[in-house]
Amino acid sequence: MMATLGRTKWQAVTTFIVLCILSSICICKAQFTPADSYLVDCGSSKSTMVGRRTFSADGASPVKVSTSQDILAGTSANGVASFDNSALYQTARIFTGPSSYTFPIQKQGRHFVRFYFFPFTYQSYDLSLAKFTVSTQDVLLLSDFQQPDKTAPLFKEYSLNITRDTLVISFKPSNGIAFVNAIEVVSVPDDLIADNAQMVDPVQQYTGLSTQPLETVYRVNMGGPKVTPDNDTLSRTWVTDGKYLLNPAVTKNVYGKDVNYKKGGATQLTAPDIVYATATELAAANTSNAVFNMTWQFDVDAGFSYLVRFHFCDIVSKALNQLYFSAYIGGFSAQSNIDLSTLSDSQLATPVYIDVVLSSNDASSKLGISIGPSTLSNVLPDGILNGLEVMKISTGGSAFTVGSGSGNKNWGVILGAALGGFGLFIIVVVLVLLCRRKKTLEKQHSKTWMPFSINGLTSLSTGSRTSYGTTLTSGLNGSYGYRFAFSVLQEATNNFDENWVIGVGGFGKVYKGVMRDETKVAVKRGNPKSQQGLNEFRTEIELLSRLRHRHLVSLIGYCDERNEMILVYEYMEKGTLKSHLYGSDNPSLDWKQRLEVCIGAARGLHYLHTGSAKAIIHRDVKSANILLDENLLAKVADFGLSKTGPELDQTHVSTAVKGSFGYLDPEYFRRQQLTEKSDVYSFGVVLLEVLCARPVIDPTLPREMVNLAEWGMKWQKRGELHQIIDQRISGTIRPDSLRKFGETVEKCLADYGVERPSMGDVLWNLEYVLQLQDADSTVSDVNSMNRIVELPSQVQNVGTLESISVTMAEAGASNEPDHDLSDVSMSRVFSQLIKAEGR
After folding, report:
1. Which entry of 232, 301, 314, 620 is annotated as an active-site residue?
2. What percent of the chain clears pLDDT 70, i.e. is strictly above it?
3. Active site residue 761
């Protein structure tokens, strides 16, 4: 009893000491004096104190308000008092027409622009019914916004790079009224957002962040208390992480006293001391039993790219080089085997941060952030995270859209200001010039692109107009491509209707299109902010204009009008292979259908590798890039990252690493040396994905299950691959078929490319796996990795090579116009070799 009381007393004392430490840390703030600092309590006739900050009365100089009616509203609702910053939600300015606030900018650069919204009823105005748009001169911040929760306030924060002498924030009601309770416009350090970040899919650098508009979605202090604006030099709020943790049982909160800042690294402006002095750590750290990741899950808007900033500070190690761990974001590896000693120049308790960009192609409505043990040998499992920021990037979506630059105006504001004699005259002149330019563009080819240029010679040698507003161009190799008018594609996609979007990728959005003759097409429209758009556009046109194969998605045409980059493909009715395996409501495929899809994809890849003088390496083989037509015929798609293979006297191509995590060839990643065998590795991962029907990277799973390739190979090498089969097809696969399939996967996933089979050998094996599944009786084993070395007794008297060559000839291989032998049905070959009635 006394021992229990002693422990309780000691815990109380410890808690008190911790709270004192945290409190002392909270009041330590860096010094920063913003050049611009406008805090406006909208709707209030007097200034308002909120913590240590003073919000000015609405309309106070030098902020100017332009509105048709001065409606300053107030409420005495008791419920407001329970909210943070409650004083700001007791008043609001109401707008009944287009209105604006104008802020003079003393120093151009990055600013926080913050809004406070809380709907209440004032006289005849019910603010809960308000629907409106908020924008600056350059950025559309909120489109047809309505308060999602009528009983709670909403705080929105944007980080904008302001390049003007004034900032005009416009409010435009959609249904009669708009409102705002408070506004902040405050300068922040320009280097708060670095220009570069690491993308996770594809693996490459993302540049241009320093000028990008961002919206703060989450700002979290891991393992520590809530941080209020009074305790952050930049007046930010950091919430606690408990509500976002999926598996709190495997975590613990840790804290440290001193934080050491190094020159050129993170500062107290990057995040306050309290963020770096607290952390969430794996609870099983420093033991051999920590096989789980700790994972936080956040609700986000799909269709946007996100900047995720990880804040780290090693407050748990007693010496350098003790802490190693990995970070994951949205199912991808963000950073492997992190060593904070290296990142902090060999100093403990030194803050650092890592910026990672997740593209709109990979962002779903649930964003998972995970920290897990390192994969290095002889390293104890551990992992920490001190803080996290999630920011939406203004690429994609309708609620946060960037304009084309400083010249892109808010037309409602401009037209209102420009009405008058001379201004109206200028607008008329501009419209006339634009109309004339449009007609000129429609009469001639764009000079921006010569997409079908091969070996320095343009293939736009002939052209004729078609009845659908397209130009038919003849290429050097005799194939044809259509150059579509932009207006035709607008019509086909219902003016690029967001409801017609069937996919989003690194290049841009893909829309379903219906031409006037009812032909369905897929229209991929380039995003001008895409980091890979220009190169992908050129690569796909040049590649697909000279390659034709029934297992490659066909390019129908393109559009380069009005500075657009649009590619038009054949429409694949059944969508992606991935969507039939998991993550959607599409019907599942049985084992035979899955094998036939894999065989079709292998044929397409085999043709890429062998169908021209130099191999073409896809570089982004994954289940999302294998599409299915209405008959479930598989076709390989998305050739934007493709690369021409090595010369005959070379073994590889040295190139920057690109691809998708989980599918990426580890040898290519380590050595940056690309070969056809990199595609073989990725295809091996697809084969496992087809068998198991689960994501290739899933940080929410126990550590040993996160990576599908690693996990699947452990079961394969134990001879127990049947244990991880998708339950929907479990029991339908013949043992011999599964065994040969597992051997094929294992060969594809060999550590070194020289140990992997060619895609032709993989194709041969998959055809054999299908034959074993269909076989009416047991057949003799075939070491199919080395082609046929032991023939069934029924065909022992037939020469192997003669049998194969004759069968291929009978199958029509010699009549293929593009000499594509990979498309000959191997099933017919095997039917001659292993069935008693054959030859």
Report:
1. 620
2. 74
3. no
